[in-house]
Amino acid sequence: MTSAPDRATARQDDDDEALEVVRLDELRGLGVRARRAFPAGDVIHRFAGVVSETLCQHSLQVDASRHISGTRYIGYLSHGCDPNARLDMTGFTLAALRDIKAGDIVTVDYAATEDRLHRQFACRCAAPACRGWITGRDERPNAEGEQWLATRDVR
Ligand SMILES: [Zn+2]
């Protein structure tokens, strides 16, 4: 098999206790918190779900035309422009880019996996390199984004 299977079958029970979905706040909604520390480079989580051609709010892109949904945690990861983790959409793993402490919110760069986002949004990640308006890697800011960026440049 040369591409990802239609149904990922990675074992999830080996690291079920390592993460938890939490409510961050009204604005940001749900996020994923590490329940223990992970050194940089460590695999945090192996995920599984249903792969289809449907793009939805909590899906992640697997390849040019397919998305994985129904995952236990990774569909709830927050975006960060300078993230502490990255997704491998071939091996279906989430790995730490930096040392992550217990209690840290795990973040990934949405543009690293997504050609198009379900919904573009203004980022509040506070990273020095924050891009401000977040889009997929293959799309331009929408009308709301153009307006948001124009307003920001004036300040
Ligand atoms: Zn940002």
Give a verbal description of the structure.
With 155 residues, the chain is mainly beta. The longest helix is centred in the C-terminal third of the chain and has 12 residues, at 143-154. The protein is globular, with a radius of gyration of 16 Å. The protein has helices at 110-113, 143-154; strands at 19-25, 29-34, 43-46, 50-52, 60-61, 67-69, 78-79, 85-88, 93-96, 107-108, 121-122, 133-134. The N and C termini lie far apart (52 Å). The strands form five sheets. It has a three-stranded antiparallel sheet, with no helix packed on it. A three-stranded antiparallel sheet has the order 4-6-5, with no helix packed on it. Strands 1-2 form a two-stranded antiparallel sheet. The chain has a domain at 13-116: SET domain (Beta-clip-like, Beta Complex). The protein is 10% helix and 26% strand. The protein is built from two helices and twelve strands. Zinc ion is lined by residues 81, 123, 125, 127, 130-131.
- Enumerate the strands of the largest sheet in spatial order, edge to edge or round the barrel: 3-9-8
| Large-scale geometry | globular
The stretches of 5 or more residues where confidence is low (pLDDT under 50) are none
User: In the CATH scheme, what's the topology name of the domain at 13-116?
Assistant: Beta-clip-like
Which structural class do you get from the secondary structure elements?
Answer: mainly beta
- Whole-angstrom Rg: 16 Å
* Assigned CATH class of the domain at 13-116: Mainly Beta
- Based on the coordinates given, report the CATH architecture of the domain at 13-116: Beta Complex
- Tell me roughly what share of residues is in helical segments: 10-25%
Largest sheet: 3 strands, antiparallel
Question: What is the overall pLDDT average?
Answer: 90
Count the beta strands: 12
The DSSP helix count reads 2
Write the H/E string, N to C: EEEEEEEEEEHEEH
Q: Name the bound molecules.
A: zinc ion
Report strand %. Answer: 25-35%
- Give the CA-CA distance, first to last residue: 52 Å
* CATH level-four homologous superfamily name of the domain at 13-116: SET domain
